[in-house]
Amino acid sequence: MRAIKTFVSMMETLILLVKPSIFQVCQVKTYKVITDPEAFQLLADETRRKMVYLLRAKDMTVSQLAADLGLTPQAIYHHVKKLKHVGIIEVAREERVDHFIETYYRATAELFHLAHGDEKSSKLEISQSREALKALEKLGYKLQCEEEAATKLVNIQKRMWETGAKDEWDDRISEMENVDFFSRQSLMEYARFLAMKDDEFEEFLSLHREMRKLLQKCVKAPGAKRKKG
């Protein structure tokens, strides 16, 4: 499959007389674990994160991405090359339009998970956690977080992810035909619960309670009043 992708990339300007749908890759994975340090650095850029978000929803060309993000096609193509190089996006299909080849891209997974333990991945996860906490203000919550709250949340999420995780399921579930995205998400969740031992399940519940308490300390609910001290 990798060899086919490379060949198509090299020959895309030379295949103008074939049928409109020239090249299409296999079904996208449900989950993908990112371990490449270069990928962590790329995803720290907001524009690239927006591109991945758009390409998770549908296949898009460079021109379509440029129009949606208000950037030049040249700038978008620069980002596309980098994201494709680290395996975050891929060519979904290529179509002939008149005398030109239109290349459509998509994300390589429906959901991405950053591998824990690497310094760069941890920094990115903490940054994203801070962004998510700040976004709670748009729901009417008032932030009153400690500086290390984002780091604590990331550590809790890491422990939750490791509880009952079965990496070998990713490929098997992503290869299932006639199972839509939401059904595959539910399937992964059901399988994790079934695989947990009783003590692992209790730990999983405990981590959820720990996260809830931490979030409650971080925010003031909409309409809530502080107690007079």
What can you see in these coordinates?
With 229 residues, the protein is α+β, with helices and mostly antiparallel strands. The chain folds into two domains: 2-111, Winged helix-like DNA-binding domain superfamily/Winged helix DNA-binding domain (Arc Repressor Mutant, subunit A); 117-220. It is built from ten helices and seven strands. The chain has helices spanning 2-11, 37-43, 46-57, 62-69, 73-85, 119-135, 149-162, 169-174, 181-195, 198-218, and strands at 21-24, 29-34, 89-97, 100-107, 109-114, 142-143, 219-220. The termini are far apart.
Layout of helices and strands, plus pairs?
Layout: H1 2-11, E1 21-24, E2 29-34, H2 37-43, H3 46-57, H4 62-69, H5 73-85, E3 89-97, E4 100-107, E5 109-114, H6 119-135, E6 142-143, H7 149-162, H8 169-174, H9 181-195, H10 198-218, E7 219-220
Parallel strand pairs: 2-5
Antiparallel strand pairs: 1-3, 3-4, 6-7
Helix pairs in contact: 4-5, 6-7, 7-10
